[in-house]
Amino acid sequence: MRHIQRRQQSTAFGAAAALHLSIAGFAGACISPEEVLMALDPVPDHHLAGLRRIEFSPEEARCCPPSVVAAYLQRERCICFYRLPAWPMFRHVLHHEIGHHVFALIISSKVKTQWTQRAVRRGAPASAYGATSVGEDFAECYARHLRGEPVDSASAAKEAFMRELVFSGAPWTLKEQQLL
Ligand SMILES: [Zn+2]
């Protein structure tokens, strides 16, 4: 198990919550702990605040349908992988699940409301999976933006939303840090 400690950046959002993130279950797996860290590289520190664990639990795979690769468990503040796909898909799924964490616990309710009321209406979902709910569309767009890919060819508004309201770190876009 690895514990990640990053130097806290002094950013516009003030005192950041300390990171207490552990990575477990990947030793000897087809995705190594180093690759998990590599996938976390582009993720801003404040998007990982409050996330406690990223784990690989293949023994729990039997409890979910074969199509389910991973899940964000909000109550446990944990991203759990049940199966490990090859690297490009692994990275996408990890970023997607971090997108769920950001949507649930990092951005302010004001920003969340703007996403549900405005951005989604203006454009098509980022993918077929993104069409299943507002939260899924957010997570898909988040993952694409993190990789520097176009969020949605049909919606410049979503691109701007990610840049200005999700990744800017401006204080009003974030939840009160003590909630974490
Ligand atoms: Zn999802």
TrEMBL record:
Q: What span is annotated as the signal peptide, if there is one?
A: 1-29
| UniProtKB keywords | Signal
On the tree of life, the source organism's domain of life is: Bacteria
Q: What is this protein called?
A: Uncharacterized protein
